[in-house]
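Minutes, project check-in

Agenda point 3 was the complex the collaborators sent over. CS summarized: two entities, 949 residues total, and the question is how they sit relative to each other. Sequences were read into the notes so everyone works from the same version.
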Amino acid sequence: MIKPEVYQALGLKDEDYRRIEKILGREPSKTELAMYSVEWSEHCGYSSSKKYLKLFPQTGRYQTMVGEDSGGFYYDDLAIIFKMESHNHPSQVEPKQGAATGVGGIIRDIFTAGARPIASLNSLRFGPLSEPYNRYLLGGVVDGIAFYGNCLGVPTVGGEIYFDESYTGNCLVNAMSIGICKRSEIARARAGGVGNPIMYVGSSTGRDGIGGCSVLASNEFCEGEEKRPTVQIGDPFTEKCLIEATLETLATGHVIGIKDMGAAGLTCSTSEMAAAGGVGVEIDLDKVPRREEGMEPWEVMMSESQERMLVCVKAGKEDEIHRIFDKWDLHAVVIGHVNDSGIVTIKDKGTVVARMTTKSLTEPEIFDLPYERPSDLDAIYRLDLKTIPVPKDLNEVLLKLLGSPTIASKAWIYEQYDHMVQTNTCVLPGSDAAVMRIKGKDWALAATSDCNSRYCYLNPNRGAQIAVAEAARNLVCSGADPAAVTDCLNFGNPNKPDRFYYFKNCVEGIIEACKAFGTAVVSGNVSFYNESPKGAINPTPTIGMIGILKKLDDRTTSYFKNEGDAIILLGDTGEEIGGSEYLKVIHGQVRGDAPALSLEREKDLQGMMLETIRAGLVKSAHDCSEGGLAVALAESCIINKDGKLGAVIDDLGSKIRPDALLFGESQSRIVISCDPKDVSKIETAAKKWKVPFRTIGKVSSSGFKIPGLIDLPIDRLETAWTSAIK
Amino acid sequence: MKFGVIVFPGSNCDQDCFHVASKVMGQPTEYIWHKNSELGKFDCLIIPGGFSYGDYLRCGAIARFSPIMKAVIDFANSGGFVIGICNGFQILLEAGLLPGAMLRNKGLHFICKHVKLKVENNSTAFSSKYQKGQILRIPIAHNEGNYYIDEAGLKDLKKNDQIVFRYHGENPNGAIDDIAGIINKKGNVLGMMPHPERSSEIELNSIDGKGIFESILDRMNKK
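CS then shared the predicted structure for the full assembly.
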């Protein structure tokens, strides 16, 4: 008789246990319990989210590919594969290894699809740096990403970092990776062909990471818990060898299917590959390479040791595969075979220790969870502008905002990442989006990740729409046409209706915006239970987006280029300070509504922007986001540290409150600069697209001046902007 | 002329160097796997950057025991041209082909950014296309680039004009005497921390590194 403590320690509830007994028609073995516990965990099974994830558009303006573990789209003769994934809880417990293995895991998802990883991005969120533990987390996470990504030789080209009290006790580490391959080279995560061998390749199996996806990832943080043993340990050198060996193996044409052993390790890879191929598998655990003595079968099945993969190869080709992995000093061992039973059989020392249908493992119960608008939201939602005084010294406000860690320069962070290896990064970190060339092609890729979670907290549907719109805007400002989306949905405990309300509304917002932009959601990940004893994180549906530059020459950066160039503001500025960084940093308030957004106007703006960039009229383009117009202008002056310039803004033509004018975060606005002779051509394009247009000033040699409002020397802007994070 | 790019497990700039040698410079180029113990016929070997063997011990300390290294040392001793970039420089130090050692960066962080270099010696086979005193903009990307050599060794380097590149303006890693790249006494083995292969095409925002490959090509053509 199995005691409740046994299955509860694995993260299973009483009703889960009863369901397992019913499926098997008998008492489960320890190994079977362990396998169900990880496969049915929220992290692997998506029980709470599946109902909504099914609604994401999987087709768009570009032809898409949605695979088992990642997805992408096709362009020219290539497939661009990409995905974002969370490693939040491991990073909160052990920041260096948590972040490192997050990078390792997402990169494996890319090269198991047959694509060579060409770039990574990271979306990070921490509590305020004034708290020492948050500071420790930031340092550890950055160190972990650098430790792993730099060694692999995959450039970390971009990302975003926000700081907010809601992440104290539960930081977010979302890692995104991008790879490319020939259309015909895409590999699938499926087993097939009765009698074909299942090979275990890569590193050996130890006791690290047991329960990572179930006990750690699928629960809230509670007080006084020790969860460090559930965090995996990363070995980037082995992963680098694994990338090369895997791509060499796939090139042989002998591979039926391949899958990373990530969350839920051997359990997930065996059962999901068999289920995807509609077959069964029999695995002999005695063959699994071990790094520790005396491991129990259930431990082997649950281990999340890193840098391991499962490959189904054509019978008779085992030796050839073995030779490739041997060249790279990696294991490649036949541990089982495909059969037509639809059943996963696990043997240990000649005895069957687990036997269940693949369907029962991979199809956990789908819940239709209740949701309810949080009771405090109506009060927070109201903002009476009359209660917010306009500060006297707007120079001080601008300097404070530039020094707010969310806005400030992230150079201290991205300079610790190798962002140039592979020699494709043509627009380096610090601009609106990274641009990567593809050698041998005249087109290029742009990538960004975005989410203002404060907007999502105040207005989840619109906040999520803004995340999509801003990602697209960042791509367009770089000269790229938005092509497709991956997302990483970070929320609190889904079993609390007020948390689930955010999930449901954010997903609906993403769907609406993605449909408007014609950008399919090709891959993604859900991370629930992001809660500490202090409460849930802000709802954070991080959007990763890839765009195509028709010509690499269309690439555009965000900083001013030449003295005398005209500065133009595209888009309207409303009296909107709700949810802004200004309201938070200067007035200490998080309230009001998120800025308004019209998807139609946003599309017009982006259409116009892309048309004028492609016509070669635009010298710089910078999206107005956190900190509003004044911050966008200041950044355009100082981002290029080798060529700082100034700006004289003399015609904002607006009668709204100066704080809203300078620091409000109205959407669908871009600051561009151009040769004065091209102003009329850009104005004509703006009229055609019905985009609000105003020449607001010109680029100067030094100083940032807005008569009556702002007058600051450039070095003071730069000092404020560059000193916040180091 | 023919370039060879040595590949260790963990090399990660091998493809970048191959690309510059073959596509940008248009020269026949081959990869050489570290388990080979013999070299074919090459004019110039490039030991690329990366994390050979994960750099889990001291950088380059394991790579120098790879079978290919004996052949590389023989090649260098017989006058063949060798360029070690970043991890490749560290391997050349460990293999004794260049003097000195590498310490961790003074800031204890990995640093990836463009830095300014000053050409100190333009009479070498690797730097003849530059002007003496020319300032170059070339990126670095390393954790252990803090070059160190004892007083006598430094005196020797200076006396023999072996310092080819110095950091200009800012010294990013604490290297002694701002040293970014050195050459052996014979003048056929160059080691440098900055990555010229990352600054040899206009798309990458700098072509200041291309002069190194052009210099070596020029020397071979005159041979």
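Noted in discussion: The first strand of chain B starts at residue 3 and ends at 7.
Follow-up: revisit at the next meeting once the mutant set is ready.
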